[in-house]
Amino acid sequence: MRTFNALTHTPLAHLHYKSKWLKYQKTMIDGLSVRAAAKACGIAKNTSFKWRHRFLSAACTQQPAQMSGIVEADETFFLESKKGQRNIDRKARKRGGKASKRGLSAEQIPVLVVRDRHGETADFILSGVNAEQIKPVLKPLLNQDTLLCTDGAVVYKAVAKQEHIAHRPVNVAAGRRVIAGIYHVQNVNAYHSRLKKWMVKFNGVATHYLANYLGWHRMKERFGENTSPKDWLSNAINRTGQLQQRCAT
After folding, report:
1. Does residue 122 sit in helix, strand or coil?
2. For residue 229, is it within any domain?
3. Same domain? 137 vs 31
4. Which domain holds residue 75?
5. In terms of domains, do 25 and 127 share one?
6. Best CA proximity match to 17, nearest among 54, 56, 43
7. Nearest to residue 129, comparing CAs of 146, 147, 151, 149?
8. Is residue 153 located within the same domain as residue 33?
9. What whole-number distance in Å separates Cα of residue 163 and Cα of residue 84?
10. Does 1 reside within a domain?
11. Which long-range contacts (CB under 8 A, 24 or more apart) does 97-101 make?
12. Which H/E stretch holds residue 37?
């Protein structure tokens, strides 16, 4: 006979030590490492690692369905990391490490961040910065009433033209950061800065788990400072709960 409960078909199904889940959510609000969270909750390091990614599996899928008003888009880059893998085709790096080549290269993983002036944020891990990669993820977020603000990269101009979306490029490279007092990419670039600063504490996030960490940071910003472990646990259990519904409105 099969039995079902409130956790059936959720990321938390079959996890043990339920009495410690709220305490573990507090360690995630505080951004603790796997080891520090394990110590705080009195669980094994491997259990802490498993819980972290189970709790984040819902958060990483929760993206706004559409954005409104002025929408900023820009890419940022993360050094590829094979952290945790036993067989890698290069010398292992220590504590995050540095790329072997200066500037952008195949070692850098592009992440497109899209953010409107209401604070709704979406991000997408790309395999390249080109129209074939950007158009499929950017198009669903925009409508005929949005105005897209980007830097001067021609890829955004091409996508906006194809989709008949109003586009205002800002030539940041030439030192022009704001046009008419309202057209800029400072909102999304500030988000990049906060994200990168927050990620430093993890000493290099494995690329395989990068989407989970991006979702973690989106949830952290969405909930804000006045949040509780119950909010985070509720979000982890209910993939289609109130938080995700709010993102779609």
Report:
1. strand
2. no
3. no
4. 70-205
5. no
6. 43
7. 151
8. no
9. 41
10. no
11. 97/204
12. helix 34-41
β-bridge pairing 108-116 and 121-125: antiparallel
Where helices occur in 85-241 by DSSP H, the ranges are: 131-138, 154-163, 186-199, 210-223, 229-237
DSSP annotation of 228 = -
Note the residue count of the chain. 249
What's the total number of domains in the chain? 2
Q: Distance between CA 145 and CA 165 in Å, rounded? A: 8
**What does the alpha-carbon distance between residue 17 and residue 3 come to, in Å, rounded to a whole number?**
19
239 located within any domain: no
Q: What is the pLDDT of residues 79-126, one digit of tens each?
A: 988 665 555 555 555 555 555 554 455 789 999 999 999 999 999 999
Give, for 245, the enclosing helix (H) or strand (E): helix 242-248
Picking from 101, 122, 102, 99, the residue whose alpha carbon sits closest to that of residue 112 is 122
**Nearby residues of 191 by Cβ (< 8 Å), 6 or more positions away:** 113, 115, 121, 221
Q: Looking at 43, 61, 79, which one is the last position of a domain?
A: 61
Tokens 């709704």 sit at which residue? 120
Whether residue 179 is found in the same domain as residue 130: yes
Sheet strand arrangement including 166-169: 121-125, 108-116, 70-79, 147-150, 166-169
Residue type, 133: Q
- Amino acid identity of 25? Q
Asked if residue 132 is part of any domain, the answer here is yes
Q: What pLDDT digit, counting tens, does each position of 172-218 carry? A: 877 888 998 999 999 999 999 999 999 999 988 999 999 999 999 99
Looking at residue 19, the DSSP 8-state letter turns out to be G
Strand (E) or helix (H) holding 47:
helix 45-59
Q: Looking at the structure, do residues 57 and 74 belong to the same domain, yes or no?
A: no
Shared domain for 47 and 80, answered yes or no, is no
